[in-house]
Amino acid sequence: MTAQHHGKHVPRRMTDSPALAEYRRFFATALRNPTTVGAATPTSKAVARTVARFLPTTGSPTVVELGPGTGSLSDEIHTRLPATGRHVGIELNEDLVRHLRARLPGMESVHADARELRHTLTRLGVDSADAIVSSIPWSLLAADVQRDILDQCRRVLTPEGRFTALTCLPMQHSPAGKRFRTELHSTFAEVGTRIVWRNLPPLLHYACTGPLPERD
Ligand SMILES: C[S@@+](CC[C@H](N)C(=O)[O-])C[C@H]1O[C@@H](n2cnc3c(N)ncnc32)[C@H](O)[C@@H]1O
Questions:
Q1: How many structural domains compose the chain?
Q2: With a threshold of 0.85, does the pTM exceed it?
Q3: Residue limits of the Methyltransferase domain (predicted)?
Q4: Ligand 1 residue neighbourhood (C-beta within 6 Å)
């Protein structure tokens, strides 16, 4: 397929809008890494707005994003964050980290595993986080990995800290999906849920507050 550009025929791909280019990048990464990406397309703007509404808007908050991917939530998070705030993205895929650094220079994009959350934040000189936004594929993680990452989130959050997680709605009935919900209830005093239908597939948005004291 071709399109007109300055009077010449150019391949359709060269005329992609930035949004379409993001889709292509996400989809290609998902094809190569299905279990770590865990979705075929980036989340919608509707989801990004829902997530951003839950974030602090005053002071100098630190917001940590686990699995920012191509940055579909990051724009909205960044817009919401006060100018003196800090936005740290921890992404497992190195190509995506390079992309994020170029696309969102205001976010500190780090190539790391969410399992190294505490170590990574210490390395960046971050003592605590006011909010954690996570869209890593929780429902595909083994029980001990889910628990380990959640435990680190609980430890790095301030007492007023907020935690959000996005999971595919159909996965809520899978064993790992149910286990994740149970783990959230053992980690936070309040666990709110909201379904965001304006995404393919619909997503379950967990909004949690009140990190509980350490478990024995
Ligand atoms: C479902 S995608 C979500 C991407 C983006 N936040 C969005 O909403 O469109 C999951 C992302 O988490 C990343 N990821 C998966 N496991 C991770 C881990 N253990 N640590 C950091 N990032 C991880 C993947 O590489 C991928 O970019």
A1: 1
A2: yes
A3: 63-161
A4: 36-39, 42-43, 66-69, 72-73, 90-93, 96, 113-115, 135-137
